[in-house]
Amino acid sequence: MQRPLYITALAAFLFDQVTKIFVVFYLDLKNILFIEVIPPFLNFSMAWNYGINFGLFANESGLQKWVLTAFAILASLAVFIWVKHGVTTKTGLIGAGLLVGGALGNAFDRLIYGAVADFLNMSCCGINNPFAFNFADVEIFIGAFALAIFVTPKNST
């Protein structure tokens, strides 16, 4: 049964969206632009990402919004199909749910705001990280890692 996948995907999507609404709108990061939380380790730094990681392909023509949204939806469907036809553990299903929930969270941002709301900024040890990310990005990374380890294709012999 794939129930852990669905529950985790919904929880990941909701967590991502609630944190974005809280930080970007309730704390008004969209206008303040920077809030020190635990400097320098954790700060909130507003960044509207029109492209993919690190703003790549952010030409703001509008087309990338639809291409990247479609890609996130198709990738989520591919994960559902892969997990359905693969041998997986509960951990693999949870990983799939994290990946799907995070991908759909960022796709939702693109549809609603025209860009992904990134706000987490972490620096350490004298290195000033100029980039921001969000919880959906973390969920996608952890989910992809879990899928690589805990889901395998069914044996065709």
Account of the protein in words:
By secondary structure, this protein is an alpha+beta fold. The protein has one domain (3-127, 135-150). It has helices spanning 3-26, 29-32, 63-84, 90-113, 135-150; strands at 34-38, 42-49, 86-88, 116-121, 151-153. The protein has a three-stranded antiparallel β-sheet with strand order 1-2-4. A two-stranded antiparallel sheet has the order 3-5. The longest helix has 24 residues, at 3-26. The chain is globular. The two termini are 23 Å apart. The mean pLDDT is 88.
How would you classify the helix and strand content by structural class? alpha+beta
- Radius of gyration computed on alpha carbons: 17 Å
Q: What share of residues is helical?
A: 55-70%
Q: Measure the end-to-end span.
A: 23 Å
Shape field: globular
SS elements, strand count? 5
Q: Work out the helix count.
A: 5
Element order: H for helix, E for strand? HHEEHEHEHE
Arithmetic mean of pLDDT: 88
Strands across the major sheet, in which order? Answer: 1-2-4
Strand count, sense and barrel status of the largest sheet are:
3 strands, antiparallel
Number of domains: 1
Proportion of residues in β-strands: 15-25%
Descriptive tags:
alpha+beta; 157 residues; 5 strands; 3-stranded antiparallel sheet; two-stranded antiparallel sheet
